[in-house]
Amino acid sequence: MVKAIIAPSILAGDFSKLGAEAKRVFDAEADWIHLDVMDGHFVPNITMGPPIIASLRKSVPRDSNAPGKFFFDCHMMVSRPEQWVEPIAKAGGDQYTFHYEATDDPLKLIKLIRDNGMRAACAIKPGTPVEVLYPLAQYLDMALVMTVEPGFGGQKFMADMMPKVDALRRKYPQLDIQVDGGLGPSTILAAANAGANVIVAGTSVFKAANAEEMIQLLRSHVTSFLRDNNLLTN
Ligand SMILES: O=C(CO)[C@H](O)[C@H](O)COP(=O)(O)O
Ligand SMILES: [Fe+2]
């Protein structure tokens, strides 16, 4: 099932009040919250890990009457991603996105993620060719095409990554395809028209004067593309 999913990255939020920041964007109708886990090794920055995610989960508990509400999308910019699957699942993660570049056995890792009750996703850095995802796609819930070098928020969107998104969308019409880095009003059209349906937006949503309007604007471009191409399901 493909639909527009807007996932604000809390990396651009106020870390002194993460619970309130998550609630703020969910109130503004964010579909997911994107949690950037960085280990200072795979990328040159350190952000958060399982203890912080577990605290955040207490602020926005799962709702047994509404499965999928308050969805935690965990972008794991870590070396040895295998070691964090169980801790992230226990902390309340709903999806685990590992980096292709960080593992020797992506299929085994996908199975481990699924066995821990999470959706499995694979990310590629800007220098990694999209073809590496083809043997994995049938086992993945989502593919993430990075549109910045991972490590920091607030960077410039790399439009030259869009052929990767376009190639994935043509080959896999039903796959969730995420873009991450530099998404906002001036770049959403390029991403949506290439076929991305899951939009990570940190700076543009968290620093917006009106987060709800920003989320709606991002969603409207994705929905238009999906509808025009008969890809929308619901
Ligand atoms: O994975 C990331 C960086 O590695 C972040 O998710 C990304 O940078 C989002 O922030 P922004 O929308 O401000 O670019
Ligand atoms: Fe991210």
Task: Characterise this structure.
With 234 residues, the protein is α/β, with parallel strands linked by helices. The protein has one domain (5-228): TIM Barrel. 32% of the residues lie in helices and 18% in strands. The chain has an eight-stranded parallel sheet with strand order 1-8-7-6-5-4-3-2. Strand 7 (176-180), helix 6 and strand 8 form a beta-alpha-beta unit. Helix 1 crosses helix 2 (50-59). It is globular, with a radius of gyration of 16 Å. The chain binds ribulose-5-phosphate and fe (ii) ion (FE2). Ribulose-5-phosphate is lined by residues 9, 11-12, 34, 36, 75, 148, 150-155, 180-183, 200-203.
Q: Give the CATH class.
A: Alpha Beta
What does the largest sheet look like? Answer: 8 strands, parallel
Global morphology: globular
Radius of gyration: 16 Å
Span of the ends, CA to CA: 7 Å
> What's the average pLDDT?
97
Low-confidence stretches: none
Strand tally is: 8
Attached small molecules: ribulose-5-phosphate, fe (ii) ion
CATH-assigned fold name:
TIM Barrel
Would you list the SSEs in sequence order as H and E? EHEHEHEHEEHEHEHH
Task: Supply the CATH superfamily name.
Answer: Aldolase class I
Structural class: alpha/beta
Examine the secondary-structure arrangement and name the CATH architecture.
Alpha-Beta Barrel
Number of helices: 8
